[in-house]
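FW: tagging you since you asked about this chain on Friday. Here's the raw sequence from the shared folder, copied in full. Didn't touch anything.
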Amino acid sequence: MVKITLRDQEWEVEAGITVREAIEKVGLTPEMVLPVRDGKLITEDTRLEEGDEIKLVAVISGGSP
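HL: got it, structure written out here
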């Protein structure tokens, strides 16, 4: 299994799927978060491996154009 966390929320998904698939599976929008593994940003097409721990960081946007 792979552990995914966003703030105080935590999910487990099966290994072997992509980061994008995992984010969608837990009900989030991939464009709204950045996935980090071992302190490094990873791409959404990265395959998750057994025992991975992925931290999702919310993308913050806003301000005047």
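FW: The domain at 2-58 is CATH 3.10.20.30 (Ubiquitin-like (UB roll)).
HL: agreed, and The first strand starts at residue 2 and ends at 6.
FW: great, closing this out.
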